[in-house]
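User: Before I run my own analysis I want an independent prediction to cross-check against. Here's the chain; please return only the structure tokens and, at the end, one sentence I can use as a sanity check.
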Amino acid sequence: MPPSHVVRASVCGSVSPWSVQHIGTGIVRDVILDERTLSLLVGALIVGVLLLTVWVVWLQRSEALLRQRLRRVLPEGESGGIDEILDRQLKRIDSLTERVDALNKLQHELEHLSQRTIQKVGVIRYNPFADTGGDQSFAIALLDSLGNGVVLSSLHSRTDTRVFAKPVHSGRSRYQLSDEEQDAIKKALAPSS
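Assistant: Structure tokens:
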């Protein structure tokens, strides 16, 4: 290699544009850098800068995606550090958990209460007397989910109307039931289709 293409760098010597200084061991060494070595170093530096640029772009994209996700999670106008915001969110979640537990308890109480409400109804209209026209008499069973309740009967004649009420427990009554009252109870207890 001709000497015109050789660049001389001294480790602890002169301060030329191509010199490298190193102080520490006290030994001064001259490093000779030719054009090919400098080209490789410049190429390596360019590759390094490109890799750093790609890495910075990737970091910025990741940061933008993280901000976008945080905007979806956090309410508008939230201020403070991420720890404060997450602490507020945790308190809100705890509050919601307590409210959900209270609602579950209320739902179970209402469910228990609703088992004792009228849920099953059976109505039978009939004509018990030959001298009256139409089905003016009726038997109606009003029962809860367990078959407890009352059966009401109304007997209509030309001269008067009589109403009877009989308690029902588990689909039966301790009082004697007419055929129409029994049919009303059966109709009430039949599964709905």
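Sanity check: Helices lie at 35-73, 82-114, 179-189.
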